[in-house]
Structures are given as C-alpha cells and as structure tokens.
Amino acid sequence: MDWMYHLSDWLQLLTAGHEPWDSYARYLPQLLEGAWVTLKLVVLSGIAGILLAIPLALLRVSKNPWLWVLPYCYIFFFRGTPLLVQIFLVYYGLSQFESIRNSGWLWDQVLSQPYWCAIITFSLHTAAYIAELFRGAIQSVPRGEVEAAMALGLSKAKQYRKIILPRAFGMILPAYGNEVILMLKGSALASTITLLDLMGATRNVISRTYMNLEFFLLAGVMYLVIAAVIIGLFRLLENFFNAHQRATHLPVKQLDAQLQDEHLRDNAR
Amino acid sequence: MDLHGFGHLLLAGTWITLKLAFVSLFFGLILGLLGATAKLSSIRVLRWIATTYTTLMRGLPELLLVLIIYFGTTELLLRMFDVYVELSAFAAGVAALSIAFGAYATEVFRGALQELPKGQQEAALSLGLSRIKAFWHVMLPQLWRLALPGLGNLFLVLLKDTALVSVIGLNDLMRQAYVAAGFTKLPFTFYLAAAFIYLLLTILFMQLLSLMEKRANRGYAGGLR
Fold it and tell me: Where is the ABC transmembrane type-1 domain (chain A) (predicted)?
C-alpha cells in the first residue's frame, strides 16, 4: 500500500524534526498496517463467531441431555479460561502432536501461522460468549409470538428460521456489539504470538525508537477510534434490525422486560 | 498431579495469581465506588472525569494498559522528576487490573445506587446523619446486595485478566505454565493444565459468589430480586 508511505513522507515534511510527531509520521505506515490486521481479526472472528454460535445455542436450548451437554462444556471451558491460555494452546500447544505437525497443508498453511491461529482462537472464544447471549434471547422471545407461529402451522424448523432466530438476533444486537468491542480489546493478545497487529506493530516500533509512552499512547488513541467506529456501526445496525422500536439503546435485559410489558399490554387489549 | 516435576511450580503460580486478583479487587472496588459517587455527584467536573475514565477504559485493551503502566511509569517519572523508579511487575499488574476493574465496577455501583429507593437516603438524612454516615451505614450495606451479582461477574473477568501480567514477567500461573512448557517441550500439556486450574478457580468462586448472594438476599424471599 504505497499511499501510506507517500502520506508518511508528506507528514514528515510538516513535522520537520519535531518529536514525537516526526516519529509518528515516520512509523505511521507500520501502525496503520497493524490496525488493518487488528480490524481483519475482529471482523473475521466476529462473523465466524456468530455463525458458530447459532448451532451451539440451538443445541444448548435443547431438552435432550445428549444434545446440550457438549455445547455446555464447550461454552463453560471458553468462558472460564483466559483468552491468553487459549491462544497459546492453539499456537504453541498443537505443535506438541506429531500427527498435527505432519498433517501437510493444514499445518503449513493454517496451524503454524499466527494469523490463522489467532482467528481460530478468537472465533472459538467469542462464539462461546455469543452462544450464551443467543440462548438467553431465544428463551425470551415472547411466548405469544411462538404460539402464533405454531397456530399458523409453521414447522419447528420454520418457526426458528422465520420467527425465533430473527427476533433473537434483534434482541442480542446491542450485547453482540459489546462482545465485538471486547473482542477488539482481546485481539491485542495476538501480539503475544508474534503477530503484527496494532499492538504488535506498536511494540515493534517501540523496540526501534525507545519511545514507550508516546507510541503506547498513540496506539491507545487508535484503539479508541476503532472502538468508536464499531459502536457507530452497531447503532446503525440496531436501527435497521429493531426498526419496530427505533433503537431504544436499552441493554438486553431492560429490552426484554420492555418487550414482555408490551406483550402483556397487547394481551390485555 | 506431578506433571514432570512442574506441578508445584504451577501451584506456586496459582498462589501469585490469586494474590494479584485479590489485591486488584480491593483497589478496584475502591476505584469503582469513587467512580460511581463521582458520576452521580452534582459537581460537573467530577462527572466529566468519571465519564471519561469509564469511556476510555471500555475501548482500551487491558494488555495495552499493563504495558503502558509497566514501561511508561518509569519513563514518565524519569522525565518529569528525574528519578529512576523501577516498578515491579506485581505492582504494575495491580495498578492496571484495578484501573480496568474500577471502570466496569463504576457502572455496576452506579446502577445499584440508582436502584436504591431514594427514601432510604432521605430518611437517613432527616434522622440527622451526616452525608458520609448515611452513605456508610445506610446506603452501602444495601448497595452490597444490589451490586453483588455484577461485581461477581467482574471478579471472574479479573481473575482471567491476571494472565496478562505474565507478559511483563510476573511468575503467575500462566508464566509458570510457559516456563514449564519451554523446559519439557510439552506445551499442550502445560497450557491445558493451566486452563484447568483457571477453570477450577472459576468454579470455586462461582460457588462462593452464589453463597454470598444467598446470604445477601436473606430476608428478601421473592422480594426485590
């Protein structure tokens, strides 16, 4: 990406040797590339996480113990252990097994690459949290709506696809947004497995410039900017998905309570 | 569990992890209470400071905070006062974790304070208690019950975040697992062992918290919560 280096050269003309601005301008391309990696990590694992979370949550709400016990253990493990342990387990841990090291493509292209290890870990991690959100939302879809779907003669699968899941998705959106922000914060751990994300690039630059404070502060500002952008995007999404109540910005719990109130009022009428 | 002779190392690390978690919890709770009172105070500057604090902490990675405090404080003191102070990894960890915990605890305490019936404070004040006494003897004991579930969750998060301090070299559970994995070339075994110890601690504290919640809610059967 050439434009970043042009921008950097141009900025250095402006800063003209004034520190720390001169160093900021000089190392801006590295940091922007790091921020791009961070963004990719968060977006990819956010999407993979929600795709994984849906089947997990569906199994988790099942009443058959054979079905819910495995998702339950999965969710419990990933929510009960530190993300740092999980990422080390995947990146350093898997190399302990010879069969994995000799697995050809899988090892060469995926499991020995810090980038993919980070994405795999973050997806598995965030899926556990999102599944728990989904479970709560599925169970709090107003009873009347499910009954109405049954009365219309929809099959169980259709009830979930047309009524329950879209409804649950609208309900968890604000909480899902929080989860993505937490993932953004957690993604800094990718730097511990040698990945040059925003945190990794920052540490790299610091090892060259010895300007600890300045560059950590700059990285902090960049993380805050990314967080602000994500929050803004989710506001838009909420407006779109919960159009029927024009984004109340209430937390899920309150939202549920509100929904139930409205539901009761509807019945009373 | 011997784990190739490294079992006792993991246990020693667990002890440090627990110490780190509890010391950070202590300072974090104080920060949270201060933050909540500042957020609800009538003084504009205090509200502004508290809001900035919680907003910043919601977007900053904990790892960045740990590194900035560990590497930055020394440099800052050197530059500003020309004194060289080397912060221990433990102290830096406590500072970072309690600042992070305090930001989220501020929201929990604020929510709990707002949930408290206003009449409680008014009654205490009309009995002639000073504001501080009213807070200490009337509000705080009730606050505890309302804030406990939220604080419990935050403590479990804190417990897991302690692993980050291993990055700056504190010999906690995570770091010991790292060392053992390096020595034995059995990374999966040791990180899994560490994971199970964290899991065990989580289960333990979840049980403890539910007991504490039960105790805090005695006399409220089917009541407010």
Answer: 35-234
Q: How many Å apart are CA A132 and CA A136, to the nearest integer?
A: 6
Q: Which domains are delineated in chain A?
A: 2-268 (1.10.3720.10)
Residues constituting chain A: 269
Q: Are A190 and A250 in contact (CB under 8 A)?
A: no
Would the pTM count as exceeding 0.90? no
Output the six-digit token pair for B37. 């009172």
Q: What CA–CA distance (Å, rounded) separates B176 from B147? A: 34
Q: How far apart (Å, rounded) are the C-alpha atoms in residues A35 and A143?
A: 44
Nearest residue of A to residue B66, measured between CA atoms: A216
What is the C-alpha separation between A103 and A99, in angstroms, rounded?
6
Residue B208, helix vs strand vs coil: helix
User: Residue A189 and residue A199: Cα distance in Å, rounded?
Assistant: 8
Q: Residues of B numbered 35-54 whose beta carbons fall under 8 angstroms of chain A's beta carbons: which are they?
A: none
> Where does B19-171 sit in CATH, by number?
1.10.3720.10
pLDDT tens digits for range A61-83: 888 888 899 999 999 999 999 99
Element (H, E) at B76: helix B62-81
Comparison of pLDDT for B166 and A98, the residue scoring more = B166
Q: Which residues contact A154 (CB under 8 A, 6 or more apart)?
A: A162, A163
Inter-chain CB pairs, A–B, below 8 Å: 112
